[in-house]
Amino acid sequence: MSTARLPDDPMQNGAKPVARQPRGDATRQAILNAAEQVFADLGYAAARLEDVAQVVGIRRPSIVYYFPGKQQLYDAVEAEIFGAMHAFVTDRMTGTEKPMDRLLALFDAWLDFLVQRPTAARIIQRVVADPAPRGDNPVLFSDTALRDLEAILDAGVTDGSFRPIPAMHILNSIAAGALFYVCNARQLGDRRQYDPADADTLAAFRAIIHQQARIVVSA
Questions:
Q1: What is the spatial distance between Cα 203 and Cα 180, in angstroms, rounded to a whole number?
Q2: 38 Cβ partners below 8 Å, 6+ apart?
Q3: Is 17 exposed, middle or buried (0-12, 13-18, 19+ CB in 10 A)?
Q4: Which of 202, 152, 142 is nearest to 177 (CA)?
Q5: 3-class SS at 162?
Q6: Cα-flanking dihedrals φ and ψ of residue 140, to 5°?
Q7: 70 Cβ partners below 8 Å, 6+ apart?
Q8: What does the pLDDT look like over 90-126, one tens digit per residue?
Q9: Which helix (H) or strand (E) covers residue 210, if one does?
Q10: How far apart are CA 120 and CA 40, in angstroms?
Q11: CA dist., res. 40 & res. 207, Å (int)
């Protein structure tokens, strides 16, 4: 009766185990980082996997190993952006209870996140202008951000501190200002350029958002 031979144990034959996962994770993240930059600069339609590969310093087949095509890569980028934004918002709103405090904390978090990550701001602005990459579900990944806003407004109306106002009016009139603040820094002519991350400039813009929010939602 024969006995099946077990695979060699690398620890017994002197070979060292190969730690592939951390390297694979690092490569995947490098691809996502490069893709975010490429999609922000070129837009979905013009961006190519070859462009992303060139930024990372790898070949196109290496990207396909992790992401079968451009749509899957773009989806992963957008999912990561809105996932990171939601986590950032959740952390910043910790300890706030009153609806107004939570609303201002939400706007602050969105603003600071986009200032720190301008590529994300440009991608979101491109999604607003051209929803084609999202197909039939334009809020596939952004829905968490919309629900964060809606939940705060609903709580304020319930406790009487906010007047009823459609969440989309707030989103389009106040919250969207953070996108323009980041994306327009170099788009309005030489004499109007500014640094979105400059402390004084950012503080002044934040004060305007707070003032607008208080005026618009207060009962």
A1: 16
A2: 47, 51, 52, 55
A3: exposed
A4: 202
A5: strand
A6: -55, -40
A7: 44, 47, 48, 49
A8: 999 999 999 999 999 999 999 999 999 999 999 999 9
A9: helix 199-217
A10: 7
A11: 28
> From CA 128, how far away is CA 149, in angstroms rounded?
17
- pLDDT tens digits for range 38-52: 999 999 999 999 999
Q: What is the pLDDT of residues 168-194, one digit of tens each?
A: 999 999 999 999 999 999 999 999 999
Instruction: Answer yes or no: pTM beyond 0.90.
Output: no
CA separation, residue 86 to residues 39, 133, 200 (Å):
21, 21, 26
| Measured CA angle at 123 (ends 195, 148), to 5 deg | 95
Neighbours of 201 (CB within 10 A): 15
Paired with 218 in beta bridges are: 162
Q: What angle do CA 56, 179, 131 make, to 5 degrees?
A: 70
Q: What are phi and psi of 218, to 5 degrees?
A: -60, 140
Residue indicated by tokens 């003032």:
211
AA identity, residue 132: A
Instruction: Count other C-beta atoms under 10 Å from residue 80's C-beta.
Output: 17
Q: Which distant-in-sequence residues (6+ apart) come within 8 Å of 214 by Cβ?
A: 100
Q: Which two tokens stand for residue 161?
A: 């501190």
Query: Cα separation of 111 and 88, whole Å?
Result: 11
